[in-house]
Design a protein that fits this description.
The chain is α+β, with helices and mostly antiparallel strands. The chain contains seven helices and 18 strands.
């Protein structure tokens, strides 16, 4: 047995040496793969025969300076060493397992794994203004590319990132100067803008099964966090949900989060809580703008914008689930009242938001295949302003007093009526006059439907074209605004609610949207 194993290792060493000297990178990987397969076969044979202890041989896989193998540098050496004493079969098996793991990392585990999500869409956009005028775009074509990247350095520590490109077809022709907030950091990866490839998310992720010696699994991550396409809004997007409950938070941000599994403590399936913190704006001068780069001189009208929050999921057994979320953001902004159409921003106050949802994914228990594969959800939310007071302060949402807004959201998703794998859905949401979520990153070109001060209706049909790799979606979104300011900022310049009658009476009916609709069709490739 030991002679067969020694022969396998020597043959592998000769093959590896030859390939590294003369072969291409592909040939190197192929050779190392053959080496792995030979070792695996030998391992299986040893397990089957359960031979007596023999003199163990050891394969040492190493490279220059213990660095990952690269296409232009580094080499793999395979050496045969003999232990001073004989080892038992279990010890040999464990050693070979370690060697195989190392070899696997050299061949195909020591590189970033990429995935592609590419979408081409066309939107028919219609606006009816409060004064009765209309603005339209019959066919707005756009391309969106997401490049995902992942690398697990250890079983506990990994890196995840995503690059985003989101662009309208061709050069955009405009009759007015482009807004400087088009590429705002909260929505830079979500807005259809230019051909720049931006970092949508990038963070390290640490996970462990124990927290401080307790049976509480936990994770922590720091970086540019994935905070768009959260719970519930992910259904229409045909995506896995990110952490936030999208009824109140749907923006990109930089920060950190820590999640703690509570199943062992509560005895409830899927229960956990998550702590989040992020920064949405930093008060920092440009590097070469002043004599004190990255430090403020106190003259700026804005401050650091920070948000903290907690997400609690008390129960989730994949059929029945419920969750709640609370956030507070300070130093929120609006356009400066002396320059309401410019890029000058000023701090106006803080904002509390809270939301809770319940979902049933699988209606009934064997009632019918259709209902068993259908889901329904309901979500309620509130927002409460905390305006800052003082000389020259503009207040929040048209008032120096705290104002509370409310919203509710209901929806369903069910199997396609024309295919086995398609999904159809319908949603409705309503918001009051002082409703203000932070949902600027929502993927709806006419503005966030969740932020609507009024009623929003949506129907969508998602159908597979080639398995789950190529899909088609047709979506219809209609928004009937009761008040203006749904997509404004947090102060009184752009966030003040006005009814349609008030807008007309104040002579701004041409600038206030009364009704909006977006009919979107897309083809999407994911692999």
């Amino acid at each position: 047995m030991k002679h067969r194993f020694l022969g396998s290792v020597v043959a592998a060493a000769l093959m590896s040496t030859t390939v590294m000297a003369e072969g291409t990178m592909l040939q190197r990987f192929e050779a190392m793969e053959k080496e792995m397969n030979a070792l695996k076969a030998e391992l299986a044979s040893m397990k089957a025969e359960k031979t007596a202890p023999v003199a163990a041989k050891k394969v040492v896989v190493e490279d220059d300076d213990e660095k990952p193998v690269k296409a232009t540098a580094g080499k793999v050496k395979v050496a045969v060493e003999k232990d001073d004493e004989e080892k038992s079969v279990p010890e040999q098996l464990e050693e070979i397992h370690d060697q195989l793991s190392t070899l696997n990392k050299r061949t195909n585990g020591n590189a970033i794994k990429w995935d592609v999500d590419f979408r081409t869409s066309v939107d028919n956009i219609q606006y009816k203004m409060a004064d009765g005028s209309k603005q339209t775009n019959d066919a707005l074509f756009s391309n969106r590319l997401w490049l995902g990247m992942n690398y697990a350095a250890t079983k506990h520590l990994s890196f995840t990132g995503q690059l985003a490109y989101n662009k309208i077809f061709g050069q955009r022709a405009v009759t007015t100067a482009p807004s400087t907030t088009d590429g705002f950091d909260w929505v830079s990866g979500e807005s259809a803008y230019d051909d720049t490839l931006r970092v949508r998310s990038a963070y390290f992720f640490y996970q462990d099964d124990e927290f401080l010696g307790t049976d509480i699994p936990w994770t922590i991550s720091v970086g540019r966090r994935p905070s768009t396409v959260g719970h519930l809004i992910n259904l229409r997007e045909n995506d896995q949900a990110s952490s936030p409950l999208a009824h109140t938070v749907n923006v990109e941000f930089d920060g950190a989060s820590a999640k703690f599994g509570m199943e062992e403590v509560t005895g409830l399936a899927g229960s956990y809580f998550k702590l989040c913190a992020g920064r949405g704006m930093s008060e920092a001068e440009p590097r070469f703008n002043t004599g004190t780069p990255y430090a403020g001189d106190g003259s700026a009208k804005t401050n650091n914008i920070d948000m903290v929050g907690i997400i609690i999921v008390p129960y989730d057994d994949k059929q029945f689930s419920a969750g709640m979320q609370y956030t507070y953001a300070n130093n929120l902004i609006d356009n400066n009242q002396t320059n309401p159409v410019g890029a000058v921003m000023e701090t106006v106050g803080g904002l509390h938001t809270a939301t809770a949802f319940a979902m049933v994914n699988g209606i009934g228990d064997g009632w019918s295949d259709f209902l068993d594969d259908s889901l329904i959800f309901v979500s309620g939310a509130m927002s409460k302003t905390d305006p800052y007071h003082g000389t020259g302060k503009q207040g929040m949402l048209g008032s120096l007093d705290s104002k509370t807004g409310y919203s509710y959201w209901i929806g369903t998703q069910f199997p396609s009526l024309i295919s086995d794998e398609g999904r159809w859905g319908a949603e409705f949401n309503h918001g009051s006059n002082y409703w203000r979520p932070i949902t600027y990153g929502e993927d709806t070109l006419i503005g966030s439907k969740i932020a609507t001060r009024g009623n929003a209706y949506e129907l969508y049909f998602t159908e597979p074209l080639v398995d789950d790799i190529l899909t088609f979606q047709l979506r219809y979104t209609y928004i009937d605004y009761d008040y203006s300011g749904s997509n404004g900022f947090f102060g009184s310049t752009s966030g003040t609610p006005m009814s349609m009658d008030e807008a007309r009476a104040n002579g701004v009916g041409a600038n206030v949207v009364d009704h909006a609709q977006d009919i979107r069709a897309y083809i999407r490739y994911k692999f």
